[in-house]
Structure formats: structure tokens, C-alpha cells
């Protein structure tokens, strides 16, 4: 099936060919059956990276570009697929569509695509096919399979977020908003923070988070900018000295801002303009959620919570990569109850 696609950054047009490559026949059925025997009912048989949260259906992606839809209990709702032969750096769910970004630094290839949640997904092209296409002067572009739309990104992507029903993403060239059909709404330059301009070439965007005040942009070095969602203009800016680099940021209407720091600390802010409070966790936090009136998290061999009683840490034997409705997905693909089972 041929599709006409355009590069968002360059504006060039190109014809790409979607080449789904599902494994069928007896060999495919045997492999699927054998995999189910070795894997417990709601475990995943790949190294998980992150969960894109939806309402009732979530999308789990792995370190090598694997994707699977899951329910609130972590049970798979379809096959594990690899739509594009490269790691996924970020993804999110808007309405009934998962939008993700793939980046292959070795081949210097980046793609963005939208996959429908209500359709069954299948595997895309292999890495060998991607290599052949890159080396061929007349080779077609390899794009993610199952996609409603897809784009070839000419600049290295860093992060993706949403604003209402629109998508906001950052590359090394700028920040862009597109609508659900991938039409550009606006584009702008990356935020600049004079006090950390000396390290701007090493800094990167690690958070694009929507809140009532606009679209917040967070940098690894502690730069914070708030953009007007209607036009992308900056309406607030500051630099926060966390004493560490920022890994990720989560916002809750009830819990405020939860900032994950690289070396084993978290920072809490009630409002984006407020002062922050630092709490030592002992090891990096990888995911968090605000539930039952307090923050709970999982991470590198630990689970934790922060309530009115203070911070509590419980050791775990593996690495928790995601927390979903009080259950933790570990780096070995297993689901376990969060360490603290009783509310504070």
C-alpha cells in the first residue's frame, strides 16, 4: 500500500511503501504457542521501557521497539509487535490513537507515527530491510506499519507531549505542535535560559507536560519554560537548581509536580512558580503516580511513597520501570504489587 507522506521539518514530499511482515503458517503458530508456555499470563517476554497511559487501554513499549496494548491489570490485549526496527524514545495516547517516536542513532533515522488503538497491530519491516533502503539510492523510505499517518523527522527528536487533542514534540531544531491528523499548528525555537546557556549544547528537553497554565517544557539542566498553547509563545521561564540533572517530570492536578532526578532524589513542587522540596530516595526513581492523596513510585531496586507522614522507602529485588494503578512492572517483564499495600 502506497502512502504520500511529508517531512514536518523540511516540508519535502516522498512516497513510502508499507511492507507489513507478519509471521504466519505453522512456524508462526508454534512460536506463539511456545512463547505463551514460557511466559506467565500477564508477563511480557521483552525488556519493558515505559507505559503510555490511556483511559482503559494502555500501550507498553520495549527497549527494542516492541509494542503491546494492555488493560488496567497489565494483561495483553493483542500480540507483541515491532512496527519499526528501532528503539522508541517516547509515546503517548491521544483519544484512541497511540503516537510514538522511533530513533535509530546508528542509521540516523527518526520516525513519528500514529497507530489506532482499536485496530490489531502487526510487525513492520526488518532492520536488514531498513539498512538496505538506506544504502539504496532509489530505496523507499521504511516507515512504521499499521500507521494512520507517519512522518520522517529530519532532526533528532527528544520528547513528546500533548495539549488537549494536539501533540507537542521537541527536536534539536525546535518545538512543534500538530493536530490529530499531523497538520502543523505552530512551530517555535527551543527555549533558551541565559543562566545555563554555557551548557546549552549538552542540554536536552526531558519533559513536555500540559497543565492549566499552558505547556511546560523542562530541560535536563533545570530550565523550565511555559508556552501559550494557542501560538507557542513563551509566557513564563525560570531555571531551577536541583543540584542534579532532571530525568523526567510528572504533573497531577491534586499532587502538583513530581520531578525525578538522576542520582537518587525527587523534587516536589505545588505550583510551577513555587520553591521545590528535595527528598532523597537512595536510587533513581523511574515512574510515579499520585493516588489516594499521596505520591507513590517505583525505580531502581526500590518502591517509595511520600505522604503527610514523610518519605518511606521499601527495597525490591529488581528494577521497577513503571507503576500502574498500584501495580509495578519490573525490568524482567513481571507484574507485582507495589510494596506498600495499605494506604496511609
Walk me through the structure:
By secondary structure, the protein is mostly beta strands. It has a domain at 1-154: Thrombin, subunit H, CATH 2.40.10.480. Helix content is 7%, strand content 47%. The strands form seven sheets. A five-stranded antiparallel sheet has the order 22-23-24-25-26, with no helix packed on it. Strands 6-7-8-9 form a four-stranded antiparallel sheet, with no helix packed on it. A four-stranded antiparallel sheet has the order 10-11-12-13, with no helix packed on it. Strand 4 and strand 5 (67-70) form a beta hairpin. The chain is globular and about 60 Å long.
Topology (SSEs and partners):
Blueprint: E1 2-6, E2 13-17, H1 25-38, E3 48-52, E4 58-62, E5 67-70, E6 88-94, E7 97-104, E8 109-116, H2 127-135, E9 149-152, E10 157-163, E11 166-171, E12 174-178, E13 184-188, E14 205-211, E15 214-219, E16 223-227, E17 234-239, E18 246-252, E19 256-261, E20 265-269, E21 277-280, E22 285-291, E23 294-307, E24 310-324, E25 327-330, E26 335-337
Antiparallel strand pairs: 1-2, 3-4, 4-5, 6-7, 7-8, 8-9, 10-11, 11-12, 12-13, 14-15, 15-16, 16-17, 18-19, 19-20, 20-21, 22-23, 23-24, 24-25, 25-26
In summary, what is this structure?
The protein is mostly beta strands and 344 residues long.
CATH topology of the domain at 1-154: Thrombin, subunit H
CATH class of the domain at 1-154: Mainly Beta
CATH architecture of the domain at 1-154: Beta Barrel
Order of helices and strands: EEHEEEEEEHEEEEEEEEEEEEEEEEEE
Number of helical stretches of at least 4 residues: 2
Strand order of the largest sheet: 22-23-24-25-26
Broad structural category: mainly beta
Q: What share of the residues does DSSP label as strand, in percent?
A: over 45%
Mean pLDDT: 88
Distance between the termini: 55 Å
Main sheet: strands, sense, barrel: 5 strands, antiparallel
The poorly predicted ranges are: 1-26, 28-39
Strand segment tally: 26
- What sort of overall outline do the alpha carbons produce when their principal axes are compared? globular
Please give the radius of gyration in angstroms: 20 Å
Tell me the helix content: under 10%
Amino acid at each position: 500500500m502506497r502512502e504520500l507522506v511529508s517531512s514536518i521539518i523540511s516540508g519535502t514530499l516522498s512516497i513510502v511503501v508499507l511492507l507489513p511482515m507478519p509471521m504466519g503458517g505453522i512456524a508462526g503458530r508454534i512460536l506463539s504457542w511456545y512463547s505463551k508456555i514460557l511466559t506467565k499470563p500477564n508477563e511480557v517476554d521483552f525488556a519493558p521501557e515505559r507505559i503510555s497511559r490511556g483511559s482503559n487501554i494502555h500501550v507498553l513499549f520495549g527497549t527494542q521497539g516492541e509494542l503491546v496494548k494492555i488493560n488496567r491489570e497489565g494483561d495483553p490485549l493483542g500480540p507483541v509487535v515491532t512496527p519499526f526496527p528501532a528503539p522508541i524514545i517516547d509515546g503517548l495516547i491521544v483519544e484512541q490513537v497511540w503516537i510514538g517516536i522511533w530513533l535509530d542513532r546508528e542509521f540516523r533515522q527518526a520516525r513519528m507515527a500514529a497507530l489506532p488503538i482499536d485496530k490489531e497491530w502487526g510487525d513492520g519491516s526488518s532492520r536488514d530491510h531498513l539498512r538496505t533502503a538506506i544504502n539504496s539510492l532509489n530505496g523507499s523510505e521504511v516507515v512504521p506499519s499499521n500507521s494512520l499517518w507517519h512522518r520522517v523527522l529530519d532532526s533528532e527528536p527528544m520528547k513528546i507531549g500533548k495539549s488537549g487533542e494536539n501533540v507537542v514534540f521537541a527536536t534539536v531544531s525546535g518545538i512543534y505542535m500538530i493536530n490529530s491528523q499531523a497538520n502543523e499548528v505552530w512551530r517555535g525555537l527551543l527555549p533558551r535560559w541565559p543562566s545555563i546557556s554555557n551548557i546549552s549544547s549538552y542540554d536536552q528537553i526531558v519533559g513536555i507536560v500540559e497543565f492549566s497554565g499552558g505547556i511546560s517544557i523542562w530541560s535536563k539542566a533545570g530550565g523550565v519554560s511555559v508556552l501559550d498553547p494557542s501560538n507557542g509563545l513563551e509566557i513564563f521561564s525560570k531555571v531551577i537548581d536541583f543540584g542534579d540533572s532532571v530525568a523526567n517530570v510528572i504533573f497531577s492536578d491534586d499532587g502538583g509536580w513530581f520531578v525525578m532526578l538522576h542520582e537518587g532524589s525527587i523534587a516536589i513542587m505545588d505550583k510551577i512558580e513555587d520553591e521545590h522540596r528535595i527528598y532523597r530516595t537512595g536510587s533513581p526513581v523511574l515512574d510515579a503516580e499520585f493516588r489516594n492523596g499521596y505520591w507513590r513510585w517505583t525505580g531502581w531496586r526500590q518502591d517509595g511513597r511520600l505522604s503527610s507522614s514523610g518519605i518511606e522507602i521499601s527495597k525490591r529485588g529488581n528494577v521497577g520501570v513503571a507503576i500502574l494503578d498500584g501495580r509495578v512492572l519490573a525490568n524482567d517483564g513481571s507484574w507485582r504489587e507495589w510494596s506498600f499495600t495499605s494506604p496511609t
